[in-house]
Amino acid sequence: MSFFRPCLLLLILAFSVSSVFAGDEEDYESKDWKEVDVPLPAAPKQESMLPFYVSAATDNRFFIDGASLSVGGDGVVRYVLLILSPQGGRTVSFEGMRCETRERRIYASGRSDGTWSRARKSEWVDIQDVSMNRYHAALFNDYFCPFGIIVRDAAEARKVLQQGARLDYGR
């Protein structure tokens, strides 16, 4: 009985310490990172659209507006995304992606007249890799954040999209 009491106390102490440190780490990240304010980009133009491959499971076509690409000092890759369906549907959005946390955010949706409508619920959400709509996962894994490493700048992001594959990230 005397052996179990010290072990139990050590176990309780270990859980207490780990929960304190886990809370500190979460607080540190949320207090340390701040997103920069970014204006809405110009309406996308056909000549600056860069196609990217998502999956054989979808007939939609996906494009990034190369002119809108930016890599902010806050570690966010921002871009205009265009999705075209075979039936003629067109979806345009201005988005951001955080490689550090594997999250994405929609800032605004494009209207047919070239103006923007700010997203009502613009928050960071986890990037999911689901078969039919895996375009965010494709952008994260294959283009903007391979191996969790953010592209250096907009020029590198455009080059990756133009090549249709990852660059050599053996930095």
Topology overview:
Blueprint: H1 4-32, E1 49-52, E2 61-65, E3 70-71, E4 76-84, E5 90-98, E6 103-110, E7 116-118, E8 125-126, H2 135-144, H3 154-163
Poorly predicted tracts of residues: 6-29, 167-171
Mean pLDDT: 81
Residue share in β-strands: 15-25%
Multimeric organization: single chain
Give me the Rg, rounded. Answer: 21 Å
Write a structural description.
- With 171 residues, this protein is an alpha+beta fold.
- The chain has a domain at 46-163: Lipocalin, CATH 2.40.128.
- The chain is built from 3 helices and 8 strands; from the N terminus they run H-E-E-E-E-E-E-E-E-H-H.
- It has helices spanning 4-32, 135-144, 154-163; strands spanning 49-52, 61-65, 70-71, 76-84, 90-98, 103-110, 116-118, 125-126.
- Strands 1, 2, 3, 4, 5, 6, 7 and 8 form an 8-stranded antiparallel beta sheet that branches.
- The model is unreliable at 6-29 and 167-171 (pLDDT under 50).
